[in-house]
């Protein structure tokens, strides 16, 4: 079903929306920005029939109802930083961008909540919480570009899941426009609310296939009064596992991040990207440990005592402790250097998988060997959050442009091992279209069948982001 087949009804619908919403809300032809043709995935870009830019939920509902009446498929778009093609349109589709639905509506210091419009960038949310004396703990490398609605749509993870949970754990209420144009408003501020089904969880993580999130009530947390961090070097993965267990028991609830870097990642970051590190190269693993606490003197002493205990037990080969907030940021620069892989490595394919912590090093070793043996010239590096079961890897063949990277062969090897080792093909990035064919590696036939039932019930005409995650 493309724009040519629809003919005038699509054009008439867009003209109707121009009259109702204003010319600034309906972009067509050469007025459509290039950014609306794709997200950050390697999926080929596509020109939508139009980009609709509602300014509130009522306008979004009107846009959806009009698209539905004209049988125009439509895809929601936020910051377009997704990596799986979930926000990418197909030719003849309409993109509904939330870029004008931006702003903090309320910060309630008593209930420790923030009500925010879905198009608001994550960094704006973080800054508003900070200025109000709170912390909004969700943190991603794309914080300046990604939109909070998209974070909910993909149930984003990030750096501090081990302490604060996934995005769904940070949401109390939301407003969503259903595929038929109904506005479902439940801006709940209650942590305890068991009055029937908790419908927000239908939409969080559904990647814009069941409804379009327009407003959100977020949980806020006390701003940490102390932050400590150490960059640790270890000899083996057994030591990494022992350090994680020691951190959980010795640091308890103040443990906020546990980031692990394999030596291949370390080599790329320090040698190719020239990122300076406070610990020497040549070790088996590198771990960034961070805490958020409430008493600077007590927490610093506790952290130092814990590190000394780990050193005396032989778990640590070396460690550097941050002496200031600036040094904490410097430590994170080593872990966040993966954002510069496009410069340091050239074209590459990124993977985001979930595994039991005890199986991660075995996976990394087997995967690296399989990629090298199965794909001539294939290199790969491994890193991840680990404490929450999330491993990232990047694979590439040097000298090949992105479109010629052997992604299908890489996918077969990586996801085949994931299935064999009982993991997930997506820990935090979603499915979209890029991972859709592999969904059965992580979900049972019964689970996928139920997903289809939900999609068919809410979107029987299959017009909202059709073909993403599952097919009807």
Automatic annotation (TrEMBL):
GO biological process: respiratory electron transport chain
Domain FAD-binding PCMH-type positions: 44-223
Cofactor: FAD
Entry keyword set: FAD, Flavoprotein, Oxidoreductase
Alphabetized PROSITE patterns for the sequence: FAD_PCMH
Keyword Amino-acid biosynthesis (UniProt): no
Family recorded in the similarity comment: Belongs to the FAD-binding oxidoreductase/transferase type 4 family.
Name used for this protein in its record: FAD-linked oxidase
Gene Ontology MF term list: FAD binding; oxidoreductase activity
This protein's record includes keyword Ribonucleoprotein: no
Highest taxon above the source species: Bacteria
InterPro entries found in the cross-reference section: FAD-bd_oxidored_4_C, FAD-bd_PCMH, FAD-bd_PCMH-like_sf, FAD-bd_PCMH_sub1, FAD-bd_PCMH_sub2, FAD-linked_Oxase-like_C, FAD-oxidored/transferase_4, Oxid_FAD_bind_N
